[in-house]
Amino acid sequence: MATATKLEVFDAKGKKAGSVDLPEAIFGAETNVPLIHQVVTAQLAAARQGTHKTKTRGERSGSGVKPFKQKGTGRARQGSVRMPQHRGGGIVHGPVPRDYSQRTPKKMIAAALVGLLSDRARANRLHVVEGFGIADKPSTKTAREFLAQVAPGNRVLVVVDREDVLTVLSVQNLPNVHVLFHDQLNAYDVVVSDDLVFTKAAFDAFVDGRAAKEDSK
């Protein structure tokens, strides 16, 4: 399925309010599934704290004397109550603090995101709206009703610009709805979402930002 060169923009009432151009470099790229898997796996790995720790035999508290004499008891010889087979003893080959992050080149990260955005555009799962119709104060009800019209998917990712505080406050408590600023868009949040909803301001800022990065190379 070919990617449309234009995408309709809807207003707060769900009616057509214009259109935006879909740059071929961002929304017409090939979707490389193995690359996306590698980038998402690296992103999840980097999010791990890696602070897990168990105590070895030498770190456990307890006496260092033998629990009973070496010979004459008929039991297996034991050197310390801190040995792993004793209750409260050390752990053998347990986890230790480590860094789970994986080196992922920036070009791979960018290619994975572009591939996902192109896939959402081809599947008609990319939406651009003028706004949520929230003017004075946050309204979760208004945001919920609007998203039900625009984005039919079970999991929705809303992308806004950093000035749109009212929209953030309105959608952040909705179940199965995640909100990001346009400069936080990443492969993981896109791949776990069924529908992607941009505000017009966020879409323009994202496209302009990508174009600026390409020009600076």
UniProtKB/TrEMBL annotation:
Entry keywords, A to Z: Ribonucleoprotein, Ribosomal protein, RNA-binding, rRNA-binding
Q: Where is this region: Disordered?
A: 48-100
Q: Does the keyword rRNA-binding apply?
A: yes
Q: Which interval of the chain is the signal sequence?
A: none
Chain coiled-coil ranges: none
Would the keyword rRNA-binding turn up in this protein's UniProt record? yes
Query: What InterPro entries does the record tag this protein with?
Result: Ribosomal_uL4 (IPR002136), Ribosomal_uL4-like (IPR013005), Ribosomal_uL4_dom_sf (IPR023574)
- GO molecular function: any one? structural constituent of ribosome
GO CC annotation: ribonucleoprotein complex; ribosome
Top-level taxonomic group: Bacteria
Tell me a GO biological process for this protein. Answer: translation
UniProt xrefs under Pfam families: Ribosomal_L4
Function of this protein? Forms part of the polypeptide exit tunnel.
What family classification does the UniProt entry report for this protein? Belongs to the universal ribosomal protein uL4 family.
| HAMAP family recorded | Ribosomal_uL4_B
Relate the assembly described in the record: Part of the 50S ribosomal subunit.
What is the name listed in the Swiss-Prot or TrEMBL entry for this protein? Large ribosomal subunit protein uL4
Lineage in the entry?
Bacteria, Bacillati, Actinomycetota, Actinomycetes, Micrococcales
